[in-house]
Amino acid sequence: MFKSFLAFVRFYYLFTCFFDTLLTRQDIIKRTGEYVKENFTYPMNPDWTTDELIKVMGIWQAVEKAYESKIDVDEFFDTYKEFKSVVKSIGEERQLGRDFEDVSGYSLYRVVTVAKKKQTGIIKRKDLDNGK
């Protein structure tokens, strides 16, 4: 379900913030031993179900993976397809993408553009930097 323990920690943190049971960054570090970026939250809609939240968080994790290491284009498209099953509107996708870029510095638009251009293979950070 979660590709890494850090992904679970981020989900747990967001989920608790979402229901006004805010844990401090230090609380999460104490409980898990993992570092979570300070003041980093994924964009989300309060009307989404837990399954929808997980699907949308998957795209943010895939974008992070593209920037921080590498991701297979097919893996990215699978995640993007799940994301689009929740966020059907292009306008909402753009707004969420901008919100995510504001908090992370990573561009959903740039990753999608590179993935569509490549069609197969691996997306690496250098592919994304060349698109600037």
Describe this structure in words.
The protein is 65% helix and 5% strand. It has a two-stranded antiparallel ribbon. The protein contains 7 helices and 2 strands, in the order αααβαααβα. The chain is globular, with a radius of gyration of 15 Å. Helix 3 packs antiparallel against helix 4 (73-86). With 132 residues, the protein is mainly alpha-helical. Mean pLDDT is 79; it is low at 19-23 and 32-38.
Give keywords.
132 residues, 2 strands, 65% helix, globular
Note the beta-strand portion.
Answer: under 5%
Quaternary arrangement of the chains shown?
single chain
What does the average pLDDT come to?
A: 79
Sheet with most strands? 2 strands, antiparallel
Shape: globular
Uncertain residue ranges: 19-23, 32-38
Q: How many runs of DSSP E, i.e. beta strands?
A: 2
- Per DSSP, the total helix count is 7
Which structural class do the helices and strands define? mainly alpha
What is the compact description of this entry?
Helices cover 65% and strands 5% of the residues. The protein has a two-stranded antiparallel ribbon.
List the helices and strands and how they pair.
Layout: H1 5-18, H2 25-32, H3 50-68, E1 70-72, H4 73-86, H5 90-104, H6 108-118, E2 122-124, H7 125-129
Antiparallel strand pairs: 1-2
Helix pairs in contact: 3-4, 4-6
